[in-house]
Structure prediction request, 582 residues.
Amino acid sequence: MSQQTARLESIRALIAAHKRWDLVFAALGLLALMVGVLTFVALFAQMVVEGAPRLSWDFLTSFPSRKPDQAGILSAWVGSTLVMIVTAATAVPLGVGAGVYLEEYAPRNWMTDLIEINVTNLAGVPSIVYGLLALGLFVYGFGLGQSILTAGLTLGLLILPVVIVATREAIRSIPAIIREGAYALGATKWQTTSHHILPYSTPGIMTGVIIGMARAIGETAPVITIGALTFIAFLPAAPFTGDPPAGLLDWVMSPFTVMPIQMFNWTSRPEAAFHHNAAAAGLVLVLMTLSMNALAIYIRYRLRKTLKW
Amino acid sequence: MVGTPAPEIASVAAAAGGPVATAKSETKALSFFYGGFQALKSISMPIYEKKVTALIGPSGCGKSTYLRCFNRMHDLYPGNRYEGEIMLYPDNTNILSPGVDPIEVRMRISMVFQKPNPFPKSIYENVAYGLRVRGERKRGLLDERVEDALRSAALWDEVKNRLSDLAFNLSGGQQQRLCIARALATDPEILLFDEPTSALDPIATASIEQLIAELKEKVTILIVTHNMQQAARVSDYTAYMYLGELIEFGVTDAIFIKPKIKQTEDYITGRFG
Prediction:
C-alpha cells in the first residue's frame, strides 16, 4: 500500500516538474506576443495623440499648403485611390489568370516547377527594385511618364505574386470531388473552371487581392522611384469624364501623389506643425488599410456561408 | 452509330443457370498503372445491359480504380496509363482508346461518387448541370428533364417546392439521391456507383438500394461496394477482385451461394478480408 502511495507521489512530482515548463513557455510566448502588439499600440497611440486634433473635414478636402494649418491631403488620398484602381485592374486579371493556369491547365513538369519557384521568389523582391524596373520600363521605355498609370502598373506587378498565391490556395481548397463531379458530367476544362473553380474560389481570391492592395497602398519606395510629385495642388481629371473615347482615360496619365509620399514630405519639414499633419495623414492611411482588411474579412465571411466543405 | 449487333457473351450467365443477357460493355485484358504501380492486372469481364453488376473485394483491391476507368477519371491526373480495352456496345467503341475523347465517354457514362458531392448551387441547377454542359438552354425542356430525373431518383416529392434552395440544405441521403438525379438527367448508358452508401446512415442506405433496384429497368449499373450484403441485395452479377486481379465473376446468387474459387468463398464467408 505504502509502495503504491510512493509510486503515485513520484508520478505527481514528475507531472508538476513537467508542467513548470508549460508555464515557462506560456510566459515567454506571451512576452514575445506583447513586444509586437505593444509596440504597435504605442506607435498608433502616439499617432492618434499627435494627429487626431488635425483631423477635420477641411484636412480631407484641402490641397497641401506652405501653411501647416491650411494644408490637407485631398490630392494624396485621391491619388492613392486612383492608383489603387489601376493596381487592381492590373493585378486581378493577371494574377487570377496566372493562378488558374498554374493550378488547372499547366502540365506538371520541370518548367512549371521553375515558374512556381520564381513566383514565390518574386514575393520576396524588395519593392525598390520594382521601382527601378518601372522607371526603366514604364517611365522611359513605354513613355508613360510619372503618371497614375505607371504607379498603378508598378504596384500591380508588386502584388502580383500575392494574388497568384492567393488564387492557387483558394483553388486548392476546393475539394477534388467537386471538380471530379463536374468532369464526370462531361464538362470541359473551361466549363469546369468558369462554372465551378472560379466562383467557388472567389472569396479566397478577393481576400488575397485586398490584402495585396492594403500592402500596395502603403508602399512608398517604388512610387518615389518612378517620380511621384511631393507637392501637388490640383486633382487629376475625374475618372471617365473626359471626351470619349480617348478622353475617358485622361486621368491615368495625370501626375499624382499618394498618401505615404505626402506623409514623407511632411515629416521631412522642420516645423512641428507639419509633423502633426503627417501623423493625421498616417491615421487616415492606417484607417484606409484597416477598412480594406475588414472588407476582406467580411467578403470571406459572406461568400463562404454558401460553401460548406 | 454503327449498327453492329451486340455480341452475345452470355456464356457466364448461361453456365451459371442465370438469365441470358446482352453485353453492354466488355473489358478485355485491362491493366492500369498509377505511374510505376500496377493497380489492375489484365481484367476481362462483361457488363450486362440493364443489369446491376457489383464489384467487391477488400480495400485496395482495385475495384474503385476499375470503376473509374469507365469514365476516364484517371485522365484527370498525370502519370496514369491504361492497357487493354473496355468495349462499349452496340457501337463497338473502345472507350480507353487514345482516339476517343474522355469527354465523349463521360457524356455516355455517368458516375455517382462515394461521398455526396452536390455543387454549391441550387437543387435545380445541380440536376440541370449536365444538360447545361451540353449547351441546353430551353427552359421548358430543362424543367421537364430536371423533374423526370428527380422523379427517377425518388426525390421529386421532397424537393419540388424548394428547387431554388441550396443543395447543401438537403440531408446526406437526399444529397446522394440528388447526385443520382444529376447523373440520370443526361440519360447515360451506364451509371457508375462508387460505394454510394458508405457515407450514409442505414435508412438512407436502404432508400438508395431500393432506388438502384428500380433504376436497372432504365440503365446499366456498375456498383463498387465494400458491403457484401449490399452486393447480394442489389446486384445481378458480382465480380470479386483481389490485389488488382479479377478472381471470380458470375451471377450474384452463384457467387454468394456456391463460389467456384476457394478465395472468393473465404472472403464472402468472412474468413478473410
Remarks:
- Chain A has a mean pLDDT of 88.
- The interface with chain B takes residues 107-108, 175, 177-188, 191, 195-196, 200, 306-308 of chain A (CB under 8 Å).
- The CA atoms of residues 174 and 200 of chain A lie 7 Å apart.
